Amino acid sequence: MLYLFQNIIKNNKKMKYTELAKKINIPIFSLNDLRLEKLTIFPYQLSEWSKKGYIIKLKNGLYAFSNQSDEVLIEHISFILYQPSYISLEWALANYGLIPETVYSPTAITTRATRTFNNKFGHFIYRHVKKDMFFGYQKIKRGQQIYLIAEPEKALIDYLYLNSAKIKNEHDVEELRLNKFTLKELDKNKIKRICQRINSKSLDKTINLCLR
């Protein structure tokens, strides 16, 4: 096996990192991107470049260029790490001013299994929901970077739905520290339509407690 691997290396021109950087003009790339560009890069090269700090490993098969790391949106990383997914829950609530806390770990909704990823950019959290609940988001594009984020009303409902077991009374609602002024600005008709679509009695009860 080792002999075969050595022959493969001899018979293929080993690409330099500078050549890779010229060929791939996006901050984040995958092994599939390399295949599409027909680039001959061996796993040990990616490992070496990562150790030298040229690239950052986000997960198996997904990398970011270190010299472009400041340009990468954390939301885009969240989106590309685990699909399908859209930003929601605490991250979106903070983004819309619905909670006062600063949230450092991106939180997202997915129809796949609940997962977390850790890399140089941070801690990425994904919560599972059934396919019927995977809606109510918008697509954001910043240059070449794309991500999905829940609309304010859906972000609130996602959060309350996944935490409804902990919210039993008005005291529990107060503990959430939701911004009452921002809550008043939400589209109540949209909230009603979303709740009707989800059709959960526990969610309806929780929503009523929050919007009193």
Concise structural overview:
43% of the residues lie in helices and 20% in strands.
Write the layout of secondary structure elements.
Elements: H1 2-11, H2 17-23, E1 28-30, H3 31-36, H4 43-51, E2 55-59, E3 62-65, H5 74-81, E4 85-87, H6 89-95, E5 107-110, E6 115-119, E7 122-128, E8 137-142, E9 145-150, H7 152-162, H8 170-175, H9 180-185, H10 188-198, H11 201-210
Parallel strand pairs: 5-7
Antiparallel strand pairs: 1-3, 2-3, 4-5, 6-7, 8-9
Description:
The chain is an alpha+beta fold. The longest helix has 11 residues, at 152-162. Helices cover 43% and strands 20% of the residues. The protein has helices at residues 2-11, 17-23, 31-36, 43-51, 74-81, 89-95, 152-162, 170-175, 180-185, 188-198, 201-210; strands spanning 28-30, 55-59, 62-65, 85-87, 107-110, 115-119, 122-128, 137-142, 145-150. Helix 6 (89-95) runs antiparallel to helix 7. The protein folds into 2 domains: 2-71, no CATH class; 74-210, no CATH class. The strands form 3 sheets. A 4-stranded mixed sheet has the order 4-5-7-6. A 3-stranded antiparallel sheet has the order 1-3-2. A hairpin with a 2-residue loop joins strand 6 and strand 7 (122-128). It is built from 11 helices and 9 strands.
